[in-house]
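Posting this for the archive.
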Amino acid sequence: MSPSPSLDRRSAARKAAREAARAATDAPAHGEAPTGRGGSRTSGGQDPLAGALRRAGLVRLLVLQLLDEAEPAYGNRLIERIRELSAGLVTVNPNTMYPLLRALEEDGLATGEWEHPVRRSRRFYRLTPAGEAERERLREEVLPALDEVAEAVSALRHELGG
């Protein structure tokens, strides 16, 4: 019997986090200037730590978590909250956020409602019971990857005497 897709994704997320942590600790080659945040050398300058967490499903999990707050949320506010919560480590642009919100709504994980039904202004989203279940499932996959990144950062701090 083959492992479940959930276990495969978890394993892939852990592997991505380990690879990102290793990539983040590599120094640039002699004469090579670091690029991106924190000296990462990935294409487009994206930090490999944030990239690994994204691949593990962090943005989707954060959105599902933030949709469960007392007040309904809209796309730009979610973008701001993610940036605030991650101290700028994870940024989401509207070209990512709005398709994600539409997909969550289509999958029955969130419900959306226009602020003004007659004129389309902001669309507010709330988490559904199915979204709560998906959030818990994702949490089981993402938190181990987040823990691995935290351990890698802790090891770096220890090595550097911090």
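The radius of gyration is 18 Å. Strands lie at 110-114, 123-127.
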